[in-house]
């Protein structure tokens, strides 16, 4: 039986123990799960996302039905556009808190893009949106 502390299990994810998979929200990205979903029974999720070299974003507007979404860029750069906020270039060391329901789109990114995304809950709905 797994020991829990305040309904969370202890977990560690090492880069050499897990692989990137293409079965994520966007086909032009690969995702490496960090084990947070299982450790928190889906209350939170965290993964490393990296670009698939040579693939581009279709730059479609969308929104997410979630409570929390934070992105921290660890390598490369990405351009996001946000409803009422315009385009922003996030580069290595940049962090953005995307408020729940904000319309946004990923416009373009470098082939070496890698970022960490933390979300709550781990499973959430995404809706396509018209441009604001």
TrEMBL record:
It comes from the Bacteria. Residues 53-114 form the Cupin type-2 domain. CDD domains: cupin_bxe_c0505. InterPro entries: Cupin_2, RmlC-like_jellyroll, RmlC_Cupin_sf. It holds the Pfam family Cupin_2. This is Cupin domain-containing protein. The lineage of its organism: Bacteria, Pseudomonadati, Pseudomonadota, Alphaproteobacteria, Rhodobacterales.
């Amino acid at each position: 039986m797994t020991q829990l502390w305040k309904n969370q299990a202890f977990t560690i994810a090492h880069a050499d123990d897990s692989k990137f998979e293409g079965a994520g929200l966007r086909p032009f990205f690969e995702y490496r799960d960090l084990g947070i979903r299982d450790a928190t029974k889906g209350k939170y999720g965290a993964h490393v996302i990296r670009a698939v070299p040579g693939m581009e974003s279709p730059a479609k507007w969308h929104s997410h039905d979630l409570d929390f979404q934070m992105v921290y860029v660890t390598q490369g750069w990405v351009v996001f556009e946000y409803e009422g906020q315009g385009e922003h270039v996030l580069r290595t060391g940049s962090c953005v808190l995307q408020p729940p329901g904000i319309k946004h789109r990923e416009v373009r990114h470098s082939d070496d893009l890698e970022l960490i995304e933390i979300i709550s809950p781990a499973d959430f709905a995404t809706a396509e949106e018209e441009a604001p």
